[in-house]
Amino acid sequence: MHYHLSTLPNGLRVITESMPSVRSVAVGCWVDTGTRDELANEAGASHFLEHLLFKGSERLGAREIAESFDAIGAESNAFTSKDHTCFWARLLDEDLPRGLEILAEMLQRPAFRPVDIDAERQVVIEEINMAEDDPTDLAFELFTRGVFAGHPLEAPVLGTRESIRGMTRDDLVGYWKRRYGAGSAVVALAGSVDHDTVVGQVAELFGEWTGDGVHHEFAPLDVSPKVTAVHRDTEQVNVVVGGEGLQRGDDRRWAFEVLNHVLGGGMSSRLFTTIREERGLAYSVYSFRLAYADAGAWGVYAGTAPGQVGTVLELIRAEVSAIVDDGITEPELERAKGAMRGGLALAMEDSNSRMVRLGRDELIDAPHLSVDEQIARIEAVTLEDVQAVAKTVLTGPKVIGAVGPVGEAELEGHLEW
Predict the structure, then answer these.
(1) Is 348 a residue whose pLDDT tops 90?
(2) Topology classification of domain 4-206
């Protein structure tokens, strides 16, 4: 196996992958909770809590945490998604015990000082302000809310100004107690590590942590055609259009990844070639996919001048329809496979990328595929597979999110493909 996995008596999982040629270690503490798991009074609590854990425990203050990471030259941060949260650090192998000690304090014994909560509350609100001021971020948020409307994945990761202002210390402590525990966490490491040594260190630092595993509320997705536009006096219209995609465990995901690359995944993709290179209608245009345990989405982003948004949407429709009707070509298939193989190889050279893959896959109970296994699945994709998944996925109801000098009425005619 390319990895080693151990489970401590308290249910905490430790997974490692050795990279003998490096001196660094990437370590991530993954918690099986995100935006989709929040109650009404907890909207944005996952992300708020991500911030607060860096404010320290009763033994370590925020400044001491920051100075400790700085003193060993470590990179450290955290991120929150709709279904998981990760606290990570990248440091020298000799400094791993200190890094694990800090992360253990943060996760198991957060102080929740009222003064820290109030200070960080305003920081999170400023983050919300920043995201809403960015037209690209806002367009994606409008699209995501439209695709997942009425679903547990609809809620924004950051929460809202109202929910963050109204969140109490009891709300945050209650969420932490309910969702954070040894049984719902994974410690993943990649780099210059010895598995048995690491398991001993983690057992010493996290061995007294308690808590059972958690579950998520899954639901079917029912997408309806929808346009949501926010008027801004910007030079461009930032627009995202797409619909329901594949769940992350769907076996067709390999064919869909090939499809995504051909459609808008690189500089040789159809969208980039048609919209940017041939027509000069956008600087940035690409396709993407989102995949969760019970639902998924696909979409295309473009930023273009207000007078050109209709043309760009029509070109996107035409390229999507062409793949649905006629599939892709053999050269496109081989080019996409080559790009994906190269991407896998490059990611394997980075310890942080390996750690993220290990921790995320273990947390979501996905198979830990080696590079050779992943390449084999990519190579097995046929032209027929790509067209079949295109006919199934790309033909459903469409959702549009847009920000700029454009109205919803102007965009509604582009929902019918």
Answers:
(1) no
(2) Cytochrome Bc1 Complex; Chain A, domain 1 (3.30.830)
Nearest Cα neighbor of 91 from 2, 177, 193 is: 193
Q: Residue 1 above 80 pLDDT? A: no
How confident is the model over 165-217, as pLDDT tens digits? 999 999 999 999 999 999 999 999 999 999 999 999 999 999 999 999 999 99
DSSP label of 136: H
> How does 176-201 read in b/e, with b if 16+ C-beta sit within 10 Å?
bebbbbbbbbbbbbbbbbebeebbeb
C-alpha span between 254 and 139 (Å, rounded)? 27
Contact 14, 369 (CB under 8 A): no
What type of residue sits at position 48?
Answer: F
The three state secondary structure string of 155-210 is: CCCCCCHHHHHHCCHHHHHHHHHHHCCHHHEEEEEEECCCHHHHHHHHHHHHCCCC
pLDDT (0 to 100) of residue 347 = 86
Over residues 145-153, mean pLDDT: 97
Bridge partners, 85 (sequence order): 31, 80
May I ask the CATH class of domain 226-412?
alpha beta
Rounded distance, CA 301 to CA 345, Å? 27
Averaged pLDDT for residues 304-322: 98
Model-level pTM? 0.94
Domain boundaries in the chain? Answer: 4-206, 226-412
Q: Which pLDDT belongs to residue 417?
A: 87
Positions marked active-site = 50
4-206 matches 226-412 in fold: yes
CA distance 105 to 60: 8
